[in-house]
Design goal:
The chain is mostly helical. It has 14 helices and 2 strands; from the N terminus they run αααααβααααααβααα.
């Protein structure tokens, strides 16, 4: 059992390190190619914190444990809303987001609804996976065009990413930047393999389903970048950054991770996960939109309810496993 735990910990560490190295290398290489900060910024926003979910879910499908991937997608989205936003707003309350909601509400609700409808068949196949991934690319393309039209939005994105755009002196050489990107990708893939293998072994050791492990251990592990970045932002008085982190990550999980996992070999969606965990994800998404449409935003009492709701969900889910 200790070996399995160490495998999970090592895998998670490699996932996080690989994601960081890959993003830094890609940013440096993008600057060498003279891509605009906006292009690099959209890529970072869209992919950086969700790389662990993507790699883990694809690896889970490849080793024949697709329920881990499904649990990871649903569980990560639930954790992002209830746990990440809840803990962040406990540190510093979050303002309402009426302008952002006009942009985000329809894609969030529609993507979650389509994912669940596709999952009602029991398996999301490669064709449906291609459609999901294509929808993500269209969404990112639309966001890029909109940001180019709105100068203020483009400036805001670039300011938010000022720290990420700093390139280490070693990465100023294109060859080293490309090498860092490749090494980061390798760490991600190897770490994802270790993480999924360890998580699958823990599920078998305790006699619980792969789906439950995906919803809990795997989802919490792969959501740790969102949690860490949001808490750091809140500590520096920028808790509202968490809203963008969670919205971007949840869209990417459903469309990008779901699409990639389905393309890797079909994404199995057990009926009980669809109607229980899928319903919780949809309800949490609706609550998220309602809270940030309200004039008070996400205050500390509501944040405590979010966090408590997540703990209650995990307890309930463990009891019906």
């Amino acid at each position: 059992m200790l070996t399995l735990i160490l495998t999970v910990v090592a895998g998670l560490g490699l996932l996080l390190a690989g994601g960081e190295v890959m993003v830094r290398g890609a940013v440096a290489f993008g600057r060498w190619l003279q891509l605009s900060p906006l292009v690099v910024g959209i890529i970072i926003i869209g992919f950086a914190t969700s790389l662990p979910e993507l790699v883990v879910s694809v690896q889970a499908v490849r080793i024949g444990a697709p329920e881990i991937a499904t649990g990871n997608i649903l569980g990560s989205n639930i954790a992002n809303i209830l746990l990440v936003l809840g803990l962040t707003a406990l540190v510093k309350p979050m303002h309402p987001q009426p302008r952002a909601l006009r942009r985000d509400a329809a894609p969030l609700l529609l993507s979650a609804f389509i994912f669940l409808m596709l999952g009602a068949a029991g398996v999301i196949g490669r064709l449906e996976g291609a459609l999901l991934f294509g929808a993500l690319l269209l969404l990112m393309s639309h966001e890029f065009r909109r940001a180019r039209r709105e100068t203020a939005l483009a400036r805001e994105i670039e300011e938010e990413l000022e720290e990420e755009m700093q390139v280490h002196p070693l990465l100023e050489k294109p060859g080293l930047a490309a090498l860092a990107t490749v090494i980061g990708l390798g760490l991600l893939i190897y770490g994802g393999d270790l993480f999924v293998t360890g998580a699958s072994g823990i599920a078998e050791h305790f006699g619980v389903s792969h789906g439950l492990i995906g919803l809990t251990l795997v989802a919490l592990g792969t959501s740790s970048p969102e949690l860490a970045s949001s808490l750091v932002a809140a500590r520096h008085g920028h808790s509202d950054v968490a809203y963008g982190n969670v919205v971007g990550s949840n869209l990417f999980n459903v469309l990008g991770v779901g699409g990639a996992a389905a393309l890797a070999g079909g994404l199995v969606v057990p009926e009980h996960m669809l109607w229980l965990d899928g319903a919780v994800m949809m309800a949490a998404t609706i609550v998220l939109l309602a809270v940030f449409a309200n004039r008070s935003g996400l205050n500390r009492p509501l944040a405590a309810l979010f966090t408590g709701g997540y703990l209650a969900y995990i307890a309930m889910r463990a009891s019906v496993a």
